[in-house]
């Protein structure tokens, strides 16, 4: 059996007993088709990001269960035919998310051993280290001298007409 969750969005105009009846039928469908119903989480009324069947909000219910492909097909058919349901989506959960544990502890993996370097690689690394050690440290660029705020020199103009 595989873990699943189904999100069902009900019409908010539906009565609470009608919503509960659909949830009960869904849980019964899961059980009769060989699945195991899990938790039922009622999220309540929430607004939509956009209109769905001319509605602006819906009543959300999340149901976890385990089952086979036939369980999902039966549940999908039931929710598709229910008038109170605006949308639904069944998602298969990964084993880690569903809380299922593997049949044993995970296998121990040894860390990889460092690979020996070839003689050429060792020589290249040594040359690189030597050149880095011999290279002079970069000198910082000299700072530019600040320019004093000087008034522009007055320019004498000669009046040619006066002359």
In short:
Helices cover 31% and strands 29% of the residues. It is α+β, with helices and mostly antiparallel strands.
Task: Provide an overview of this structure.
- With 163 residues, this protein is of the alpha+beta class.
- It has a domain at 2-94: Ribosomal protein S6/Translation elongation factor EF1B (Alpha-Beta Plaits), CATH 3.30.70.60.
- It has helices at 16-32, 69-81, 95-98, 119-134, and strands spanning 2-11, 36-52, 55-67, 85-92.
- It has a four-stranded antiparallel β-sheet, covered by helices on one side.
- A hairpin with a 2-residue loop joins strand 2 and strand 3.
Largest sheet: 4 strands, antiparallel
CATH architecture level-2 label of the domain at 2-94: 2-Layer Sandwich
Please bin the fraction of helical residues: 25-40%
In CATH, what is the homologous superfamily of the domain at 2-94? Ribosomal protein S6/Translation elongation factor EF1B
What's the overall geometry? elongated
Put simply, the count of helices is 4
In percent, how much strand structure appears in the residues?
25-35%
* Strand order in the sheet with the most strands: 2-3-1-4
Tell me the series of helices and strands, N- to C-terminal: EHEEHEHH
Spatial extent as radius of gyration: 38 Å
Give me the secondary-structure category. alpha+beta
Q: What is the fold named in CATH at topology level of the domain at 2-94?
A: Alpha-Beta Plaits
Measured distance between first and last alpha carbons: 113 Å
**How much is the average pLDDT?**
81
Number of DSSP E strands: 4
CATH class of the domain at 2-94: Alpha Beta
Low-confidence stretches: 101-106
């Amino acid at each position: 059996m595989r873990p699943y969750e189904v999100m069902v969005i009900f019409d908010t105009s539906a009565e609470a007993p009608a919503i509960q009846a659909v949830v009960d039928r869904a849980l019964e469908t899961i059980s009769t088709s060989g699945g195991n119903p899990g938790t039922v989480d009622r999220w309540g009324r929430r607004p939509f990001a956009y209109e769905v069947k001319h509605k602006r909000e819906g009543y959300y219910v999340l149901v976890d269960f385990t089952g086979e492909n036939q369980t999902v097909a039966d549940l999908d058919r039931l929710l598709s035919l229910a008038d109170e349901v605006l949308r639904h989506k069944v998602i298969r959960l990964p084993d880690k998310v569903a809380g299922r544990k593997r049949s044993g502890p995970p296998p121990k993996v040894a860390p990889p051993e460092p690979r020996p370097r070839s003689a050429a690689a060792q020589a290249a690394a040594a040359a690189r280290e030597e050149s880095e050690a011999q290279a002079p440290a970069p000198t910082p660029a000299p700072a530019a001298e600040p320019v004093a705020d000087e008034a522009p020199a007055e320019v004498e103009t000669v009046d040619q007409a006066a002359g």
